Amino acid sequence: MVVFKGPIIPTPKTLDALFEPTMFRDYVELVSGRLEHYLADRSVRGLALSNPPALLETAQALTERPSAASPEADAGRLAAILDLYIRTGIQLYSPGYMGRQFSGPLPLAAVVDLAGSILNQPASFYEAAQLPNIAERIMADELNRFVGFAPHRFTMVTTSGGSLANLTALLAARNDRLPHAWSEGLAGTRQPRPAIAVGADAHYSICRAAGILGIGEGQIIRLPIDRERRIDIAAAKRTLEAARRHGLQPFCLVGSAGSTSVGAFDSIDQLADIAAEQDLWLHIDGAHGASLLLCDQLRHRLHGIARADSLTWDAHKLLFVPAACTLLFYKDKDKARGAFRQDASYVFDKHANGHADYEGAGKNLECTKRAMIMPLWVSWAMYGPAPFADKIALLCRATTDAEKIIAGEPDFETLHVPQANILCFRYRPAGLPESRLGNFQVEIRDRVRAEGDFFISQVELDGTAALRLVMMNHRIEPTHVRQLLRQIRKIGLEILAGAERAQPEVSQWV
What we know:
carboxy-lyase activity; pyridoxal phosphate binding; alpha/beta; Diaminobutyrate decarboxylase; Aspartate Aminotransferase, domain 1; PyrdxlP-dep_Trfase; disordered C terminus; Aspartate Aminotransferase, domain 2
């Protein structure tokens, strides 16, 4: 058994004692002290990746108790668990964090999330979560000022993540364009095979949704992309025509506003033209990039968004609230309710005196969901939109600055002009064989992660791996980017030197 040192939180003697307010206060004081130190740490650090069996052993030791009937409640155990939680996580507030699309939440948003955990109001139904449902209505109106849907015609619902929002939007599209599918399945559509058209770089959740909805991956029409990895409009029209000749009937066109791979923005206006001409539902996956609507200098990336039928928007990315908090917008609120056509008297009250107009239960898959809107609403109410817009603009400028720094290094290459806060590049020293380029990036990324100063990611572009930066921390400065490049160069040269010393027949690089 592990023995912990530190102050003792009195062990609860009764069931009622487990819920004592004083215990809540003691736990919060201990945890908040640890988290304050975490937030104050400005050091450059990445990810301390643990060996899973070793981490399992450590966590099991923290689980051991003197007896099942008398659990320990000492502060040392809780502190050890929290320290392990922090140490094994991605360091979101460090300038060494440049690897993923989730952000360090605003402290205020995190505190409101804590309140939500105690209050535990299931937010799909008005009577169970009155203020969260009102807050959802307020934030829908606030954010729609940037989207531009008709004020009295649109609706918004929160979902637990962008993948679920995309699935829900595609379900609404399917039921709108294939009205018999909900009751009869796709066998009842009595027409050519229904299909969904997506850009080649679309998020994997779109294809996953096609499988879940019974469309099938074989009915995914993959639209070509241009050099900036946006849907090529002329090629897309030709591809759709060819798909119809081969027995497919597209009903939905999906565009990206900030693709996961490189942060590319499809031309929404031009996609809307295609959708109008061909009677397609236009869904925009703006999970990452919809937040740019808040910035005057960046809003043009989503020009034409008011012509879309639906929009996915992740607040836990560039609106800096705890995950998951996704906003799914519909241009037409009636079509939103068409996603689900069910009666269940134990939750759907036909005599609710208008309450249903203020709840999302009829528009989303989840019966029980967190009051995820509250951290966003409270932050918005306290600060207004300006801090969000300022940070987004800063992150995008930092990414542009990083692109200039990397492009100025002769042994590095940037792979696109950043449109938001994502940048892909490669370390490409002279003499590196083209056939080894991708594996070289992967090994560099793994070695960078292992050294623990920086956390970056990797992505395959046209079949070859590249290094990927996602700027989510406003404390990242050009000096940190240069420090990262020095580390990449050092690691890369070490890899090449090791390959040269190896036997030619087993060398990975030569």
